[in-house]
């Protein structure tokens, strides 16, 4: 694939700050191909209902064969009435993950309608795969000035487009991979290597769940990773699969006489028809200060702009040293708060990445 062919895909995916920098928290040690091959990851993708039918097969035969051939655990979320999207979840070692997505692509080329979410497929030997990638890990896949995504495209012969916006009520974005089954297998291998190197930044991801959006932006009960209905306030932290529903929230505040309500406990703003939801994300310890700002100025601005209530745990929640930020409000306010938090994080990472160059 020529540089000219790749450039539109790159341009569409690197407009915001997160896409212009690589990870600053990755393991500097270079892994061998053998180490990558046996690394355990989970890689999800959005599929249409028709594509899901092809992947599952009659009486589940196709997905069963997929598991047998690759050794992965794979499944498709249950149907949500009125929603055309479903989520394919594949978990296993990286070689198995890459092979599984190659087989999925092959099955879709042979059995799916020739109109996918990416539009009319001009080449009958290709099919788009829409991978779900944490917003916080996207910079590693795209690389500085789009160099990494171009390298993956050149190595695999696929075409990749990284969407700029996070999916509703989540911190995941779509990377669409268009190519032959063999090309998709190679591309997933390269993408998986990026995710292995950048595993820590995947912690804190709010997983996307297909749901019916109703008036005011609220959603029907989301699906969990196994395809069942999750509690309305269940938000998963990816990476190790921990669920921070309930217990991870900051300690309740006891109001004292003649004192103003702290800004982190102010009443959240709700749009008509919305219900209050709680989402928890982890912030690296060395980034907490830049999110809060001098005298709390930045976090106050995020609260004001989003209308969400944001509280910050005083102590790390585990051995990583990360601090838990608890966001409470309606779906619209929470989504805006998440976007602003990640925008501040990526701006700070870019600032830090430029310090050595400026010094030089």
TrEMBL record:
Segments passing through the bilayer: none
Location of the K Homology domain: 39-109, 125-196, 275-346
Coiled coil: none
Pfam family, one: KH_1
GO molecular function: RNA binding
Keyword list, A-Z: Repeat, RNA-binding
Gene3D superfamilies (UniProt xref): K Homology domain, type 1
InterPro entries linked: KH_dom (IPR004087), KH_dom_type_1 (IPR004088), KH_dom_type_1_sf (IPR036612), Rnc1_KH-I_3 (IPR049786)
PANTHER family: KH DOMAIN CONTAINING RNA BINDING PROTEIN
The protein's name in its UniProt record: K Homology domain-containing protein
Organism: Neohortaea acidophila
